């Protein structure tokens, strides 16, 4: 997976709240829209992991399923899988919604 680093400025809004803008391409890839919830998970090293609430692992579930279509970009699929892994799923199952996983996706 190719890491993509961007710099964003912290902004003070209303005197009591700090905000930061999110990269539009990430929002689009994660199929998010205005008003969707993002979860912030504070890590022991001081970093914050941000992920959509829609991929949050339910307390008792150990399996996540990623639907893959022939037209999906490899980077998008990888990001979804890595996000699920970081959230803590023990098993991530990849299911192709079309005829099957193409050889180009298998090689990647």
- Rg computed from alpha carbons, rounded to a whole number of angstroms: 16 Å
Number of helices: 3
Overall geometry comes to elongated
Strand content: 25-35%
Number of domains: 1
Largest sheet: 2 strands, antiparallel
Oligomer: single chain
Provide the spatial order of strands within the biggest beta sheet.
1-2
SS class: alpha+beta
Helical residue percent band: 10-25%
Listing every helix as H and every strand as E from the N terminus to the C terminus, the arrangement reads EEHEEEHEH
Walk me through the structure.
- This protein has one domain (11-107).
- The protein has helices at residues 24-29, 74-87, 103-107; strands at 11-13, 17-19, 38-42, 48-52, 63-68, 91-96.
- By secondary structure, the chain is α+β, with helices and mostly antiparallel strands.
- The relative contact order is 0.15.
- The protein has a two-stranded antiparallel ribbon. Strands 3-4 form a two-stranded antiparallel sheet.
- It has three helices and six strands; from the N terminus they run ββαβββαβα.
């Amino acid at each position: 997976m190719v890491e993509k680093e961007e710099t964003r400025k912290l902004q003070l809004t209303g005197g009591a709240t700090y905000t930061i803008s999110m990269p539009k391409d990430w929002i689009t890839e994660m199929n998010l829209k205005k008003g969707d919830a993002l979860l912030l998970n504070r890590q022991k090293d001081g970093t914050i992991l941000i992920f959509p609430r829609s991929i949050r692992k339910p307390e008792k579930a150990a399996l996540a399923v990623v639907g893959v279509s022939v037209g999906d970009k490899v980077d998008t699929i990888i990001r979804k899988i890595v996000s699920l892994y970081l959230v803590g799923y023990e098993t991530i199952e990849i299911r192709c919604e079309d005829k099957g996983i193409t050889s180009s996706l298998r090689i990647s």
